[in-house]
Amino acid sequence: MVERIFNFSAGPATLPDSVMAEAQTDMMSWKGAGLSVMEMSHRSKEYDSIIKDAEARLVRLLNIPDTHKVLFLQGGANTQFAMIPLNFLADGEKGDYIISGEWAKKAHKEAKVVGKQANVVASSEDSNFSHIPARNTWNLSSDAKYVHYCSNNTIYGTCYNELPDFGHNNVICDMSSDFLSRPVDVSKFAMIYAGAQKNAGPAGVTIVIIRKDWAEKIGTPNLPTMLKYKTHFDKDSLYNTPPSYSIYICGLVFKWIEEEIGGLSKMLELNRKKSSMIYNAIDNSAGFYKGTVDNKNDRSLMNVTFKLPTPELDAKFIEEAKKRKMSGLKGYRTVGGIRASIYNAHPLKGVETLVDFMEEFRKTHEKEANA
Ligand code: PMP
After folding, report:
1. Cys staple from 201: which of 98, 159, 196, 213, with CB 3.0 to 4.6 Å?
2. Probe ligand 1: pick from 99, 108, 176, max atoms within 8 Å of CB?
3. Is the pLDDT at 368 greater than 90, yes or no?
């Protein structure tokens, strides 16, 4: 048995053991084909079955309607930040952005970098993104072509636990850090996108679910071929060589959610269970651990952020946790403290180990914190 640590990293993140095991079995010879998926032509019938299977599983998992299509792209969510305004805004047209964290802010900034008009609907930056901007503070523009938001703020540990009423038909969502963590009504979106490396698979593939009418839009003249959604849409994600191995692993992860977990409602149940174990440990610590999120309704199920009484204790906590085989717990530099990222595949045992350790650490250090 290989010894594995509990990986609390914000991404790339833990993959399910059964996915790793199947990939290992398939490594030298995929299903007896005599070659690895890494060595296969992306035009071969074997690979065609792999990418089609991955897509079909995703369609089933998210109940993706026929009005939408799945694309497997490259360049990470960061490339989407540019592609969205380049494709969906013509000169003089505007996108609305809700700024609930660092990534949402970057998406807005990139729209400006590519020379488009991007309006800030609401921002929680004044409070260091410790909450989701309340719906009644949003200043939507009447003529925006789309509203862009980020459903889970990886750095700040906040998320939209309910889908707000956007008052707009064309909602675009960066779901990088909570994709496939819960059921989603895809019909409500013009586009959803997510880097795979947290919940869906390894880095290298960016999953896009686009409404078909939107895939036809090319808002900017002379847009490079690779930056047009239409290019990838027309060629079923095979215009150029796709990140073929990453897509294969995503397919195995989708299979794991479908067949071992039992779908996205079950996934959500498990994610609620895991995250509430840590939130309870915070809330029942008599103030030793403090959550960094203002409002409990905004707490993320994926990234749990909290602080100890001093930065010295934060550092000690991280160091001691490492000795117990828990890694990746350091909070992002703009927040500090601890961030426990517990994506879909992070095992319950990892969360139990963390919660036990939190209790033990608190008992040992409570007195010095109060001294
Ligand atoms: N959006 C969110 C919500 C993220 O968490 C991240 C990565 N941590 C990104 C965008 C950037 O993704 P990528 O590295 O795939 O460009």
Report:
1. 196
2. 176
3. no
213 three-class SS: helix
Nearest to 258 by CA among 72, 63, 69: 63
> What's the pLDDT score for residue 36?
98
Q: Annotated catalytic sites, by residue?
A: 103, 174, 198
Residue type, 78: N
Same domain flag for 224 and 166: yes
Which protein residue's CA is at the shortest distance from atom 15 of ligand 1? Answer: 76
Phi and psi for 214 in degrees, rounded to 5? -75, -25
Residue 10 lies in a domain: no
- Which pair of structure tokens corresponds to residue 232? 């990838």
- Ligand 1 pocket: which of 98, 108, 151, 154 to mutate (most atoms within 8 A of CB): 154
* DSSP code for 98: E
Model confidence, pTM? 0.98
> How many angstroms is it from 203 CA to the middle of ligand 1?
10
The two structure tokens encoding residue 167: 């008052």
Structurally, how many domains does the chain consist of? Answer: 2
Residue 299 CA to residue 342 CA, distance in Å, equals 13
Among 111, 195, 177, 176, which Cα is nearest to 145's?
111
Domain that holds residue 164: 17-260
User: How much distance in Å is there from the Cα of 302 to the middle of ligand 1?
Assistant: 14
Mean pLDDT throughout 7-15? 97
Q: For residues 202-213, give the mean pLDDT.
A: 98
pLDDT digits (tens, 9 = 90+) for 44-77: 999 999 999 999 999 999 999 999 999 999 999 9
